Each structure stands twice: as C-alpha cells, then as structure tokens.
Amino acid sequence: MTNLLKSIIPITLCFFISGCAVNQSILLIDKPNEGTIRNLGKGSVIGYTKKDNSIWLGIPYAQAPINTLRWKAPREVISWDGLLEATQYNQACTQIGSTFGDPLAEVGSVHGSEDCLYLNIFAPKEIAENEKLPVMFWIHGGSNTIGTSSLYDPSVLAASQKVIVVTLNYRLGLFGWFLHPSFQTESSNLEDQSGNYGTLDQIAALKWVQKNISHFGGDSNNVTIFGESAGGHNTFALMFSSLTEGLFHKVISQSGSTKTSTLTESINYFDKRAQPGNKNSSKELFNQLLIAKEMAEDRSRAIEIQNNMSKEDQYDFLITRTKEEIIRTYYNNLDNKDYMHQVINDGYVLPKNGMDFKNTEKLSDIPIIMGTNRDEMKLFLAFDPEFAAQRFSLTFIKDQDFYDISSQYGSMGWKVAAVDKPARELVASGNNKVYGYRFDWDEEPKVLLMDLSRILGAAHAIEIPFVMGSMKLGGLEDYMFDENNIKIATQLSESMMSYWSEFAYNGDPGKGRTNDQIKWHSWNNKEQQEKFIILDTPNDGGIRMSLEGLSYASLVEGLLLDPRIPNDEMRCEFLYKALDANWIIDERVINSGLCDAH
User: Using 50, 70 and 90 to split pLDDT, how confident is the model at 596?
Assistant: First the structure.
C-alpha cells in the first residue's frame, strides 16, 4: 500500500470502481477467541472478537469447484474434523490482477484460486441468548470478473445497527458464467448445464445461511440480500431465479444492471447468421484456446476442428486447460477489457426471458430498495482518454462541460434502467414495497491540482463506505475526507446505515432504525407523488424525497432540447456511448430518428 500511495490518483480511483474500503488491519490474522466457537452441522469453527464485533472469516460453504467440479453447480461442503480456525480471509476467486480488484494481486497476473467458495460473518459482540438478528447478505461488485469479499469491512454496520452481515466469494468471469454445448452432454443435471455457476454459488451460500446462521445469532427467516454494481446485478438475478424460494426476504440493489445474456449469445459463433453469439462466447473461446495450443493456425481452422470433435472430447479439452491458459487466452483476445459477465437466461436458474419486471408474480410482494449514484459515469469517464488525461499520476479533465454532460446523461440512463423503469413496472404489478434512492454526496476535497468533487463527484461505488459505516478507504481516506467534510459525511453514513438496517428489520426504511430520519416513502407512479429519496448532506439540500421520475423518452427529449449540446452528432454520441456504456439502449431511443444519419 505504501508504494501504491505514491500514485495518488490511480489508487484513489481504485476505491471508486471497486468500493475497496479495505481495512488493512482486518487482513491480519487475529487471535482466536473461545467465546466464538460454534458447532455447525459440518464441523466446528472458532473466530475472534474485535472492538464491538465477533468475526468469522473463511468458512467453507461448498466444496472446492476444482478438477471435475469446474463448471459444475456447487456441491455441499464436506464435513471436517477438529476446530476450524476462521480468523483470516481465504484467497480471492480466480481473476486477472487489476488495480480495481484484490489489492494483494499483481496487476495483469492470473490471481486467486478456483478453491474459493468461502464466506465471512460479522456480528455484534453482545447478542442475547435467544436473540435473532436480521441477516444482511453482501454480494461484492467488480463486473462479475474481479473483486473479493476482503475488500469490504461491514463491522461498523453490524455492530452499530445490530445486524448480522455475511459476505462471500463466488466464482468470477469464465469460471462463474460460461456455457459450452459439451457441458450438456457431460452432465444431465440442469444446474450443471446452466452456465450460471457464480449465481449458483450465491444460492449455495444462502442455503448455508438458512442452515447455520442461527448459531451466530441470525434469523434465517429475515434475510436481506444486498450488493453493488455487479453485486446489484446479482441481487436482481437471485430475485428472478426459481431456485431461491425461501432463501431471502428482502432485496437492496445498489447501482445494479438488469441486462442478461441469452443462450445463443453465450454459446454461438459470433458470425452465425441466424442466431449469432457474442465475440466472447464459449465457442469463440474454444477457438482461441485451439489457436493458443497451436492446434489450429487460424479461426477458420479452429472452427473446423471444434465442429469435428465429439462433445466428450470438447469437454475434456476444456476441463484440462489450466486457469492460466483460460484467463490469459480470453483476456488477450478481449476487445473490451471492462467486459461484464452477465447471468445467462438458461431457462432453469434464470428465466429464458431474462429479468422482466412486468410479468412475474414472484416479485409482487418482495420489499426492494433500488438506487444509483448521481454521477455514476464519472468514474469511467475519468479513465477514458477521450475525456481525461493522466499526467504525472494526476487526472486532468480535457473539457469539463463535455465531461459533465456525458456523465449526466449516462448516469441518468443508468438510473432509468436500474431504478425508475423496474420500479414503475413493479408498482404497476401491485408491489407497494418498492423504494428508490439517489446518492448525491460530492464533497471530496481538492488534491494537488485536482478538484475531486468535479472529477468524481457522486461517482460509481462511493456510497459503499457510507453503507458499511467504516469510512475507511484502505489508507485513501486521507485524500477523500478531511477535517472539513468527515464529520458531516459520517452523519450521512449514520443515516444511511439507519435506513438500510430498518429495511432489513421490517422491509420499510421508514424513518430509519433511529426513527428520527426523513421519512423514506415508497415509489408512487402517480404524477407529482414521491418517487425516490435523495441522500446528501445539508450542504447540498440534505436528505429529501423527490417527485421526479425518469424514462428513456425523457432522456431523448432532454438531449434534443439541451442548449449545451451544439449539434446532433454530439447528441448521438451521448446516446450511443454514454448510454450504451450501461447496456441500456432502448428501442424508443434507437427509433427516435435522432441518429438515423449517424
């Protein structure tokens, strides 16, 4: 971390993309405490106590998905003998080392382990003998490609709000969401054939919670799943899965996405005429692996070889490749290095029609919080050479107006996709327990020549330390908070934790757990009625309800009328770049006629 701090801005921005509020002290091995011994169905564990918490790290919730269990649904964990010391995190799941992922990984390396299905539990130290606390089940972000549970410290949330917080690792990238036709020949198990192994890992962990969380003071009948970015995407997926009945009772999606992948997109060659796959499909990766192994000189020859192999030989070829071969071959051929692995509409784990909020009775009663950050896109634009330049480890915005407009419409589009559109559809279907939010905090200080409040503002992921409550950014808090903003920022964090925990207790954030916050009303589809709550400090209007609802149509209208945009070419650029960056181009946008000439 000391060496990393020499490059202030790249590492400062690391926090924003991954929410890496790393508490370095918690990564150290703490002394076990006999008062934390718990006898579970598969064996006994011992954790440790720290300040106001009892903590257990690295408890296995499924068998290691290695060798013949790679690309299989998780199997129930095997019993162990003796006392399992749960005082340190296990390795991250296999991923490419990234500035935005595990801080222990070398950038560009193949990092982590396929043996990674472990969870962690944070509880208040003092729990009455018969007390059963709400459980909050955190799913980390990172495009379903990078990240790890050790990046997050929910100890303040657990202790101050009297909730049990569970965090977990789940398979990522090609090991988490990948489906080749040969899998269907090798196994008759529909879960094994789904390709949604990361989703199934999360389901397995939720099943573990149902069986075991009472030993830690948790109420298995009151479980809230919550996650950010890809974690928010995954909470949505769990809502729609037919396999999650009774496993959780409330949902919080922070900056989630509802975009999924079809079977054809996930499997087929990208140039198949009738049903093309994407360029990252399983058949295309198979081609790349054949070329990398020098079994084919080019793609045409690789297709011929793949098509002539039996399904059994195809499976054997894939399963015998090392994780390094798979990750490096895939990554080296990836046009978009920020590609997100989405859940697959396999028709079993996920419905074939994906996440359709309009047509499901399953979601008619479930309480849900959905929200985004006002300046989501600024994080990504700050790394885009079209918008920003990196010099001497500093970030300089090339055209602040262009930067702000791009962020505004992209972030609004994200909000439509992740909040406003699904909220309207859920409420229209009869769900009166839908709560929206927008996080607006943008009071970062100036650092050297940079005004971080303009560069990042309320960027993607910065709400996480406010929700977790630690306000620790892995040593970066010195650059993000100062004596002028830390007190009022902490007060906003306390309010947010109060809302989140009250929702976990009762399915309604109301006036917060303290019952002294601004009342958070549920989403109302009627004009001039409450839609969502704005989360901000008194410096910028404070916490308040908003009547403003967004739609794709209103975004197009805004683009057409915005006097800051000089020409239609630039308007189209906002549509196809800023909006499409969030996978939210809608038919109404495409058919608006605005970009016909472009």
Answer: low
What is the 8-class DSSP label of residue 255?
S
Q: Name the token pair of 113.
A: 């382990």
Q: What torsion, rounded to 10 degrees, do the Cα atoms 519, 523, 527, 529 define?
A: -10
Beta bridge partners of 110: 96
- Reference 117, options 167, 192, 153; nearest CA is 167
What whole-number distance in Å separates Cα of residue 195 and Cα of residue 280? 14
With CA atoms as reference, report the closest residue to 461 among 232, 202, 174: 232
**In what side-by-side order are the strands of the sheet with 38-39?**
38-39, 44-46, 83-85
* Residue that the structure tokens 């006002």 belong to: 374
CB 36 within 8 A of CB 49: yes
Q: 144: which residues sit within 8 A by CB, 6+ positions away?
A: 172, 173, 176, 177, 198, 230, 233, 234, 340, 341, 342
pTM of the model: 0.93
Asked whether the beta carbons of 460 and 229 are under 8 A apart, the reply is yes
Which residues carry out catalysis?
229, 376, 460
User: For 329-388, what is each residue's pLDDT tens digit?
Assistant: 998 888 766 678 999 999 999 999 999 998 778 898 999 999 999 999 999 999 899 999
Rounded CA-CA distance 27/190 in Å is 38
Proportion of the chain in helix, strand, coil states, percent, rounded to 5? 35, 15, 45
Give the C-alpha separation, 471 to 485, whole Å.
12
Mean pLDDT of 538-566: 91
Q: Are 47 and 55 in contact (CB under 8 A)?
A: yes
Contacts with 432 (C-beta within 8 Å, 6 or more apart), sequence order: 522
Q: Where would I find the H helices in 429-516?
A: 452-455, 464-468, 477-480, 486-506
Six-digit token pair at 488? 């009022």
* Mean pLDDT within 548-570: 87
Q: What CA–CA distance (Å, rounded) separates 550 from 358?
A: 17
- Using DSSP bridges, classify how beta strands 450-451 and 446-447 pair: parallel, antiparallel or unpaired: antiparallel
Residue type (1 letter), 563: P
